[in-house]
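Hi R.,

As promised on Friday, here is the backbone we talked about, encoded as structure tokens. Could you run it through your design pipeline when you get a chance and send me back a sequence?
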């Protein structure tokens, strides 16, 4: 049996829209086993245990890429800890898991770069895919339909809390509210902050994160789709967090801190309990490993 563990990811990291992403120590695990015939999927709601399952679709797409027919049966086991449609990369994680599983079932035929390429073709953009495969903070760009990526070293000491509401937000809806053009001023605003953010993550000038993490490309437009967004951003700042951003397309809000306030989680939970919707606070660390394959 092949086991593939894939980390949750948080795309954009504030100003790096469709380019930056980070992996976290929250995982989905998929198992793949060849069986005589047919498709068996376990571990997810009945309605997804069929040929439309995203893990299976990605598995099949990877077989196509390797020019192999599905001339064998497959059993896929799914263990999901990553909440769906919350801005934590769950769809990229399913896709990466299915592709990596197919590569391993055929004897390790796919490189990490190939997994990223195939997954990006399905997902449409690489910013969740690359860190899900490689771990850490990864910058990805597209050029002539090919993904070029680079992982940076992040200085130790950053801690994260994911504030996750009990309602989903579809990426499609969150992309539909974005403008199609931006002013030169807004472009400069984001280019300068993205550059600053990457430098402070790598050299540890965490005091600059609060300036570097601001964004004018997507957050101002998406914030209004998330009840409580503006209040939460303000509260995180007044509680002394290093910086706060909308994780991916939302609705999860990610706040960064230095770990020096042992009461931070409780203080956030207390504030969130005053809001109309239910919000959970999950403490996270960066995952630096990416996909992990084991054989049993
Ligand atoms: N960069 C993407 C977005 C991530 O913000 O729409 C979500 O898939």
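Update: got your reply. Pasting your designed sequence below so it's all in one thread:
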């Amino acid at each position: 049996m092949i086991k593939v563990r894939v980390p949750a990811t948080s795309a954009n990291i504030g100003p790096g829209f469709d380019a930056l992403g980070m992996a976290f120590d929250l995982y989905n695990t998929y198992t793949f086993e060849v069986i005589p015939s047919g498709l068996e999927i376990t571990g997810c709601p009945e309605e997804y245990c069929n040929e439309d399952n995203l893990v299976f679709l990605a598995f099949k797409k990877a077989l196509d890429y390797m020019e192999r027919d599905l001339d064998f049966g497959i059993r896929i086991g799914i263990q999901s800890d990553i909440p769906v449609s919350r801005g934590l990369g769950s769809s990229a994680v399913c896709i990466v898991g299915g592709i990596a599983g197919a590569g391993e079932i055929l004897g390790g035929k796919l490189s990490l770069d190939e997994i990223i390429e195939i997954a990006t073709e399905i997902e449409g953009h690489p910013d969740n895919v690359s860190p899900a495969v490689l771990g850490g903070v990864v910058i990805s760009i597209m050029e002539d339909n090919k993904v070029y990526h680079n992982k940076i070293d992040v200085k130790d000491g950053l801690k994260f809390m994911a504030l996750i509401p009990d309602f989903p937000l579809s990426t499609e809806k969150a992309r539909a509210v974005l403008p199609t053009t931006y002013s030169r001023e807004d472009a400069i605003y984001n280019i300068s902050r993205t550059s600053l953010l990457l430098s402070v993550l790598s050299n540890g000038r965490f005091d600059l994160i609060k300036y570097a993490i601001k964004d004018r490309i997507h957050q101002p437009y998406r914030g209004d789709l998330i009840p409580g967004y503006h209040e939460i951003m303000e509260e995180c700042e007044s509680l002394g967090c290093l910086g706060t951003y909308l994780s991916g397309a939302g609705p999860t809000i990610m706040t960064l801190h230095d770990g020096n306030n042992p009461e931070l989680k409780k203080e956030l939970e207390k504030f969130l309990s005053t809001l109309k919707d239910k919000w959970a606070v999950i403490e996270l660390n960066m995952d630096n490993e990416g996909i992990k394959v084991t054989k049993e």
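One thing I noticed while checking it: Residues 209 and 243 are 6 Å apart (CA to CA).

Thanks again,
M.
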